Amino acid sequence: MKFELVRFYYSPQHEPERRYHTDNQRALKQLESLKERGVEVEIFDVNQIEDLFPHYHRATVGPKVALRPVFGAKGALEEDFGRAVPALVCYENKDDLYPAEVFPRMDKTLERMLGINEVLDNLLTYGDVMPPAVEAPIPDEVELEPPSEEEEALAGEIPEEIVPSPETAPEAPSEAGAPETPEAQPAIPVEEMPAVEEEGVVPAEPRFAQPPAPPAARREQNGCVATVLEWLILLLLGTVLATAVALGILYAFNGTLNFSNTRGVREAQSAIAQLEGQQAQIEASINALEREAERLSQSLGSLEEKTNTLEDYTGTIRNELETTKDELETAGEDIKTLKSDVKAVATESAQFDTFLTRLRDILIELEGT
């Protein structure tokens, strides 16, 4: 499986759990080597991510949710993501919404945990998450082993009836229905080819071949063996065919159940993914509203301080206005007094003017006389 994008979530301040042990420093070096081979690599320190839920959500849900890891011993915990359990999230295409693989995870073929460092080694060495020699078995599939060489030999060695040659054929019975009574045949001398005499070599003496078994006995023996072998082969073939038919029926039934279960699981997973997406949006909206409320609270606090300052200024101005009013009232009284004084001065001035007028008249009269 080829990946275009690989994301690695880890925490430099936390040590991974023993069950999901990962050498983070080694993984970083492996990711650098993978990046040099053209794979896009993104490395995240989970301590620097403010909202970790979207990353955790994408890694724990999706069409292949059965392959997702269990973050932490108590279940899929967001606080364990990247800390107690570093996560390697792999995407076949950069634009995919959900990853194709997330490690570490359990592997059915290996029957153990498939760790991050091992996966990165396999990607660098073989270009896949597992070596080519390791192939996952197909569920409920049984391969029929080919017959061994011994079985093939037994199946192919069905003896044929031995037809005696005219020289060795027994004589026909004199009476019909009489049982065949093979006559004992004397040993037939077989002379070897004379060897070339050499000095010091004694020529070999003639040997006698053993007479062949009676044809009737051999036919009876071979017929029994052939019958037994035929029955064994038929029994074996029948057993194999019955097993294959039973396995085919079970596989078809299991495939139907798996298909219906998979379809239901996919629909449920899709609905859960939609609900979780809506939940994430609602949580994001709630966080935004909380931040806005905090800003409004700060603005209200500042406005309250300004209002208190304005009230202080208003009180000071009110006091100053009252003082000014008192001063104006005092000034009004002083003006009234001044007016009275001015009137008195005007009256005295008029009297003095009258006095001067009379004095002038008197002087004029005196000057005339």
Key traits:
alpha+beta, 369 residues, rod-shaped, two-stranded antiparallel ribbon
Would you write up a description of this structure?
The chain has helices spanning 24-36, 53-60, 116-125, 149-156, 215-368; strands spanning 5-10, 40-45, 87-91, 101-103, 105-107, 112-114, 188-190, 207-209. It is an alpha+beta fold. Among the domains are: 5-125; 229-328. The protein has a four-stranded mixed sheet, covered by helices on one side. β5 (105-107) and β6 (112-114) form a beta hairpin. The longest helix is centred in the C-terminal third of the chain and has 154 residues, at 215-368. The N and C termini lie far apart (152 Å).
Radius of gyration: 59 Å
Return residue spans where pLDDT drops below 50 for at least 5 consecutive residues. Answer: 136-145, 157-204
Q: What's the total count of β strands? A: 8
- Termini separation comes to 152 Å
Structural class: alpha+beta
Main beta sheet, described? 4 strands, mixed
Which helices and strands occur, and which strands form pairs?
Elements: E1 5-10, H1 24-36, E2 40-45, H2 53-60, E3 87-91, E4 101-103, E5 105-107, E6 112-114, H3 116-125, H4 149-156, E7 188-190, E8 207-209, H5 215-368
Parallel strand pairs: 1-2
Antiparallel strand pairs: 1-3, 3-4, 5-6, 7-8
Helix pairs in contact: 1-3
Short description:
With 369 residues, the protein is an alpha+beta fold.
